[in-house]
Amino acid sequence: MIHQLTQGIKISVDTSYNNAFYKEHKIHYAFNYKITIENQSNDTVQLLSRHWEITDALNFTEIVDGKGVIGFTPILKTKTKYTYNSGCLLISPMGSMKGYYTMFNFSSNQKFNVIIPSFKLTAPFAIN
Q: pLDDT tens digit string along 100-128?
């Protein structure tokens, strides 16, 4: 599991390989990731948006920006966690993801970015 702490917000990421399948005459590799966002600060915060950079082993990078995560913009009071599962498709059996969440701090009325650490996506058969 990968961890990153930014301004009292801890991001933990766990990944898994799901399967391969054909789509639009190409093989695609499906990966799942589980992210836990833990508010270790003394302030209540809300996740507003996400920014992802998804790169495969062929050096193709996809940028994904959007509101919230999986349709939610969770509010995290101090010492609480929010966990969600999502996934992505790559056209190679290896790649990586990184990015950031834009959060709002209710105490300071300020937005800030929380780093999502870079993490690997690797199909087990691609390791050897």
A: 999 999 999 999 999 999 999 999 987 76
**Rounded to whole angstroms, how far apart are CA atoms 101 and 112?**
8
Half-sphere exposure of 5 (CA within 13 A, CB side): 4
* pLDDT < 70 regions, the chain: 128
- What is the C-alpha to C-alpha distance for residues 92 and 33, in angstroms, rounded to an integer? 17
The percent of the chain in helix, strand and coil, each rounded to the nearest 5, is 0, 70, 25
DSSP 25: T
DSSP state of 68: S
CA distance 111 to 122: 33
Question: Contact at 8 Å (CB) between 2 and 34?
Answer: no
Phi-psi category of residue 109: left, alpha or beta, with phi > 0 → left and psi -120 to 50 → alpha: left
